[in-house]
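REVIEWER CHECKLIST
Item 1: Sequence provided? yes
Item 2: Single chain? yes
Item 3: Sequence as submitted:
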Amino acid sequence: MSAHYEFGHSLYRAFLYGRLSAVTRARLHRSVAQQLEGLYTPDRQELAPTLALHFEHGREYGRAIHYLLLTAEIEARRFAHRESIELLQHALDVVARVAAADRTLLELRVLERIGDVHYALGSMSESAGAYEMAATRAAQAGLAGAHAHALICQAPPLGLIDPNRAVAASSAPSKSLRTMPKERAPCARAIHGGRAAPSL
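Item 4: Structure as written out by the authors:
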């Protein structure tokens, strides 16, 4: 196939795509994403960025964030931490488009991952800031367990830049600590265990 043909074909495809209505484009992206998702397996993680893109353009924002988080984790495992943070910041922007009922928990998840990756990168101030934002959001939403969890995550990076604040942050109300599910504590275990970033 000649380069001239490929160039002309891509222009024609772009022209046709541009003539589609926004609703039709979203439906098309959603259909592609759903078909690709059927092919996704842990051994085919290279599909995660494409799935994130199509779900976002298909206005399936919660699923887009799921695959953005997976893609960010893949980058972090490759030690491409800055690329991982860029993906997570984009996921945080996408959170604003999620239905209000589902927004808070997704936002907390993304903020925690931002804190994790900054910690792995050695950016302690940014790491502590992300966890602090998560703690604030959780407190505003009345999520006591998530609030305590975020404060525990914040303590290690904060301890390296402001020990006094770290002590205060780790002194979460005992009620919040009692209500925190055990599975909500991967961050503190991973950090003290030396892992760069906990799994999702």
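Item 5: Key structural point noted by reviewer: The two ends are 43 Å apart (CA to CA).
Item 6: Recommendation: ____
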